[in-house]
Amino acid sequence: MSETDLETYAFRMQLHPGKAEAYRARHDAIPADLVALLREAGVRDYSIFLDPESHALFAILKRPKTHGMADLPSHPAMQRWWAGMADIMDTHPSNEPVSVPLVAMFHMD
Q1: Options 27, 55, 67, 75, the catalytic residue
Q2: CA 60/CA 33 separation, integer angstroms
Q3: Cα gap 65→33, rounded to integer Å
Q4: Sheet containing 56-64: which strands, arranged edge to edge?
C-alpha cells in the first residue's frame, strides 16, 4: 500500500493526572492480539503523545480510506483493552476512551 492510499487520522484523549507511567507501561505490554486486530483494521504508523501539563493524549495514525476501524469497538480484544485502561483515563460507560477527532490545520511534506 502506498502513502497515497492512506489518510492521516488524529484524535485527543484525556489521561488522569499522575497516570502517565501506568499508561506507558500498559502500552509497553500491549497484547499481540490487539496489535494484530489494529493492523487488520488498517491502522499503520500509530503514535500517541502526552502533553504533561494538561494530561491530554494526542494520537495520530495512518489508515486506508476504506479502513475497518468502525468494527473495533465490538471486538473482545478491544473491549478487554478498554476495560484495562478505564481506571487511568476518561471513558464512556462502555469503557471506550472519550476521544475527540482533531481537525488538520497544516501539513508540510
Answers
A1: 27
A2: 21
A3: 23
A4: 44-51, 56-64, 6-14, 100-101
Kindly list the distances between the CA atom of residue 31 and the CA atoms of 28, 35, 70, 86, in Å, as whole numbers in the listed order.
9, 7, 20, 16
* 55 tagged catalytic: no
Does residue 4 have a pLDDT over 90?
A: no
Secondary structure element (H or E) that encloses residue 91, with its range: none
Report pTM. 0.92
Nearest residue to 38 via CA among 48, 49, 25, 52: 48
The dihedral formed by the CA atoms of 29, 52, 93 and 95, expressed in degrees to the nearest 10: -10
Helix axes 76-85, 32-40, angle to 10 degrees: 120
